[in-house]
Amino acid sequence: MTVTGWLTIVLFAAILTALALPLGVYMARVYTGERTFLSPVFAGPERFLYKLLRVDPAHQQDWKAYARSVVLFSLVGWLLLYAILRTQHAFWVPHLLNPMGFHSGTWDVSFNTTSSFMTNTNWQYYSGEVTMSYFSQMLGLTVQNWLSAGVGIAVAVALVRGIVGRSGHSIGNFWQDIVRTVLYVLSPIAVIGALILASQGVIQNFSHYLTAHTLTGLTQEIAMGPVASQEAIKLLGTNGGGFFNTNSAHPFENPTQFTNLVEMLLVLLIPAALIFMYGRMTGRRRQGYAIYATVMMMFLGAAAVAYIAEAHGSPAQHVAGLHTHVIAGSGGGNMEGKEQRFGIAGSALFDVVTTVTSCGAVNSAIESYTGIGGAVPMANLSASEVIFGGVGTGLYSILLYVLLAVFIGGLMVGRTPEWLGKKIEAREVKLAGLGILITPLAALFCTAMATATKAGTASISQAAAGTPQGFSETFYAYLSQANNNGSAFAGYTGYIAPKAGNIGAHGIKFANILGGFDMMLARYAPILFALAVAGALAGKRVSPAGLGTMRTDNPTFVVLLIGVIVIVGALTFFPALLLGPIVQGLTGHLY
Amino acid sequence: MRRDVVTSIIGMVVFTLLLGVVYPFAITGISQVAFPGNANGQKLYLKGRLIGSRIIGQQFATLKMHNGKVVQEKGVPLTEQDPRYFQSRPSATKPPYNAAESSFSNLGPNSTVTERAIAENIKAYLEMERPYLPTLTAAQVPVDAATASASGLDPEISQANARIQAHRIAAVRHLPLSTVDALIANYTSSRGLGFSGEPGVNVLQLNLALDRLTGGTGGTGGGD
User: Can you give the pTM of this predicted structure?
Assistant: First the structure.
């Protein structure tokens, strides 16, 4: 460990907070319909889009109408994306956008990929540079990177409206929310982000792959593509699907020490800002600060554990006799599956940033992390996307936890629980409980299925078969897909493509289909429960806080909230975590 | 319901055009004008021939020959490291440094396979460097020299790794060690904003500079 390493973590948190505060204020203005400094630019296009979409933005939706719009919009997107992926080689795809002449992947891997990008998961059984044409990457995957992010944010905003609403049943208008999200929030940051990345060396072109003749006379083929535009939104929308197989470890996706910092900021920017937005929209900023303090503490804890574990090195390294401490000119630590320019701290922090959110991008191989280092992303996932979480999903998930904590706190002091002046009753608590539990249930059920069946174990990588590492791979796969994260213990296989372009490729149907349903169930069920909670709360009367009202903006509540999150996560996942990564972390034994 | 379906379909088409066509083409247009070298992959040419990308690592090796034929294993030609050049990190792609199919090793932390791979890497490194630096021990081998990178295409090695290899380069190329060390310093990247990441030495640029200095394969390397 080095001072610079620790500084990386601390300064990152500081820069993030400084950027997220003003963005949160801005977003609160956007979603309450106030004028912003970008209104002169976007007000015109916004009206034009409403006209094209035949939407009356003044029309207010109750939670059922809102949910119907979300589901239908997602369904149409699913069908379009599946069609695009299945027709990569069709006559209408211009050569410019498929210069390598790639055919389509198999139907099962397309099913998995479509479900994955629809649900903001970006789980990838395929390798981008040997599977996807530029057409599919741009018109298919990039578009869903934007829209799945937009849907998540819209649902979060709708839930906040339900919490603060005083006017009956309306929770906003989905079409207005998605248009505003794309125009006012995502597009300015994505464009600036893409240009910063491109200026630093993330490629952006439509070239045929290059053939280079190296200094020593070998040939090297080099993949190309429109990467920067996809990279920026992949991170900003907490999607995480790499243009290339090795994701943000690839020098063309993440070329320098500086871009690594920019990429991490892009991931956490909106999830952090949404928490401040919540404070603003409730009219009580301290409510936002309390949640921010909660998740920031858990985030810093996770980053510290991952950094310490990786700096310590792996048992395999120690047995092989490789030094792992810092020496002059080398940072030491477990560098298997890590890039020199990111080092241990830059890799461990990136890993935590993308697993607390639903991003799931990676700049290092998580499978090669030490036992404890690998347990950190799993623990992050076990907390069900509440430590910042995905764009929107993070906010609505933690708000469900806040509701549960208020209820538990109310039980403890023996009073009717109240939250921001609204009485919390059986209906909301049941809905929140279901919303919280559906993700762990999906993850554990699928893991059990895949561990118990031959068809499931076929996906485990050869080197890990029959070891705790094999169980970790399986568990991570379904946990990651259920949390709509998308990072992986990448040895776990669902698609075998013997050569570039998908000819002769075959998928492992079990893994593709089970994973696809895992992702969709764990995405849309919580959305529906969150919207139902919004609907239930929207109609409630607000009563002034009394002396006996439990406060939800002080350190006591922060502790209670952390307790609830940890207890729910630990009770659900502790046995599974023990069987995989923790047992490896407790032993120096090789197998 | 019907209204929602119509809006969904129109919305998906409009957003696909806006976000899937206009957005990436606009970013491409701006990037190609403002920073064409970077947007096209920082290509490096030598005597008019493309030799690679500045930020994609490559293998500095020659094909292994036996009786005038290339030695193959399972259809993949074997290579031998070229002692005249600084060597990149081990790579998990097939063949190594295949920039058309990036890959991790995905080897677990407690795996005997990992241990064997690392031990072999240490052995190979010592065999390569010890003749020129007899005091070198296994415990001094820098971590990056014995582990596969994440992308399989890491363009950089650690400074410690470069300084050890410098002894071999100086001897093979008949250069003073101080000259080689100075070159290493020239091609060492620094931390982002002074704190983010680790410094690294760009192997391809360093080797190109060596060739310019001592003739090597000759010519001058240049940007795009």
Answer: 0.96
